[in-house]
Design a protein that fits this description.
The protein is elongated, with a radius of gyration of 28 Å. By secondary structure, it is an alpha/beta fold. The chain is built from eleven helices and seven strands. The strands form two sheets. The protein has a five-stranded mixed β-sheet with strand order 4-3-2-5-6, sandwiched between helices. Helix 2 crosses helix 3. It folds into two domains: 57 residues; 230 residues, 2-Layer Sandwich (Nucleotidyltransferase, domain 5). Strand 2 and strand 3 form a beta hairpin.
Length: 298
């Protein structure tokens, strides 16, 4: 005997139809059922609505209620300077509580050198455009030479900024919303900056003071800081192609030291390997391939 409480196929179809109608397709059953009741309509219980939609794989999102899917950024590989840049904006405390100065920083992914930096009193695509244009001019960037990666903030995707990139022939690349791992180089740079011993424990007294401090940081970072991810050479030396000779000389020094006192060297000479490529948002296969190459060179 058929269960009298069971909805017929026609009734189930009506539930699906009403749930996907223009009026209700953005709402969950907990909202649909009382709205129908206010119109003097009873089709099924709330639990029946949920069960039917679940069976039809419509219980989470229907039609235009579905969230936009954000795909992973296209992987980019830098084999030399000025192929891939990363940029972002970070807050610097000002003397006024709740107000900030804004540090715009552009770095070369291959060399880690800061190629553009400025502090402004506000965020804007116009300021970002000026900085990008100046950096591209200073580095003599040709059209279609450079990919510029950033997050999804307003200054990054503003019309002025996108127009500037188009005019320069620069390819934009964007992180997924709220995914900091998609822009790891800028995030790491900001961490280094804010953990510098000279970074103020409180606020910068003025915009001028903030700019002066950032200028000093950029000089230190580019010309003195020996970066762990590029075999402990400075970003400037790698950007200028001097790192190969630096690493070669280190290898010679270690080799000669081992020849002088071989008993002290049980595990061979340290490999001062040149980092030949840097990957931005690589696939799993790309990461594994690079790791295998590095292990073979070690």
């Amino acid at each position: 005997m058929e269960n009298a409480r069971k909805l017929s196929e026609r009734e189930r179809a009506d539930v699906i139809s009403i749930a996907n109608s223009l009026e209700y397709r953005d709402l969950p059953p907990s909202q649909i059922v009382p709205k129908l009741a206010d119109q003097g309509i009873y089709m099924a219980s709330e639990s029946s609505f949920y069960r039917i939609l679940k069976q039809a794989e419509m219980n989470n999102h229907r039609l235009n209620a579905r969230p936009r899917k954000h795909v992973r950024p296209t992987p980019v590989v830098a084999l030399e300077p000025n192929q891939v840049w990363s940029w972002d904006i970070t807050y610097l405390k000002s003397p006024i509580r709740g107000q900030y100065f804004f540090l715009y920083l552009i770095m070369d992914v291959f060399s880690r050198m800061i190629v553009g930096a400025e502090v402004y009193a506000s965020e804007s695509a116009e300021y970002a455009s000026v900085l990008i244009r100046d950096a591209a001019k200073n580095q003599r960037i040709n059209r279609h030479q450079l990919t510029l990666h950033s997050d999804n903030g307003g200054p990054m995707k503003g019309a002025t900024m996108l127009s500037t990139l188009q005019n320069l022939g620069v390819v934009p690349s964007f992180s997924r919303p709220k995914v900091s791992d998609d822009n790891p180089f800028s995030e790491s740079l900001f961490k280094t900056l804010k953990y510098r011993p000279s970074y103020p424990g409180g606020a910068f007294a003025s915009l001028t003071e903030a700019r002066t401090w950032v200028d000093k940081f950029v000089r230190w970072y580019n010309f003195e800081h020996q970066h762990s991810e590029i075999s402990f050479v400075t970003p400037a030396s790698r950007h200028l192609g001097q790192d190969l000779e630096i690493l070669r000389k280190r290898t010679l020094i270690y080799t000669e030291a081992r020849l002088q006192k071989p008993l002290r060297w049980s595990n061979g000479v340290r490999k001062w390997n040149h980092v030949s490529e840097v990957q931005l948002n690589p696939t799993k296969e790309m990461r594994e391939s690079l790791q295998n190459a590095e292990q073979s060179a070690a």
